[in-house]
User: Fold this.
Amino acid sequence: MDDSPRNDSRGTAHGFPSTVSPCRPDSPAGTAVPLSEDTYRRVIECAPSALVMIDEQGTIILVNAQTELLFGYTREQMLGHPVEMLMPIRFREHHCTYRAGYYRDPSPRPMGVGRDLLGTRADGSEFPIEIGLNPIATETGMMVLASIVDITERLRAQRRLEDALREKIVLLNEVHHRVKNNLQVVTSLLNLQADHAADPQLQAILRESCGRVKAMSLTHQLLYEHKDFSHLDLADYLTRLVQSIRATYRSGGGRIALRLELPPDGIHLELESSISCGLLVNELVTNAFKHAFPGERSGEIVIKLAEEDGDQIRFEVADDGVGLPPESEFSGSSLGLQLVPLFVEQLHGVLDIERDRGTRFCVRFPKRPEMKDPS
Assistant:
């Protein structure tokens, strides 16, 4: 390969064309805006990126000092030679096709979007690069000015971040797994204590506490299963939670039906609100099982979940039982009813109660905690 520079009408021995013009949107195509060679040289040489200008045949017409530093060639070794000398051998065969395609529709844009680009130094070592292409109108025809940046350090930093993220995910996964297991131990201890309690009222209290711990444990279980630590599918969560509650109150047999009306695509709720929502549903459904159908009365509990206006969630827990007495508000002896307004407040929600033909609790709350209901 001849390392001597080519001296022709396209530029000087330093590789600087005598007259160049960027193709600007506000200028007619091919209109040249003259710049002095000295001005152009200073602009090119002071650029922080490697700059390489080529003609339509792919011949290097111009380089700057950063190009020499980046690729390890002298200016004289690059000028007048094919630009393919700066890329790995395996990519050179197809580069002329890409270059011809660019010349058919020249415009400022990055090169090789979606592909990994590599440069080759004089010693044969390869390194990752980014290239921006800009068409340049000159007296001798259209040229392409390539701005080349070595992204080795950026990729290293990106890999370090990815490694740190993977470690964080593994850690969070382990945390949720351990929390879930510990809550299951607490559940087992509460059940064991309830089995040995002589007082039926104490047994009921322990069973209720066990249900609340299960509701919290289920949150961590789903996070562990789906490996998504920022959101929870509320529809999936309620389905699993209701199955757990149904199993707890299986003594009701077929007297009490439980029906869910959930959106087919689910609703994803931020983790911050998931536990409060689960505990709220647990209290409302549990209270319906305990108090809405006394004796041998039969009926149905319906749970509805829907999304409103894109940023609001509405769920209802309704039953066709005996109804909620007017005096049974949230200050009575039932701990469950006392907890309901606390959970609604944590969700920044609004609670409506209807006592017509049973009881219906309707809760509306924002999908994101910071988006409070304006009412």
Observations:
- The chain has three domains: 20-150, 153-229, 232-375.
- The chain has nine helices and 14 strands.
- The CA atoms of residues 191 and 207 lie 7 Å apart.
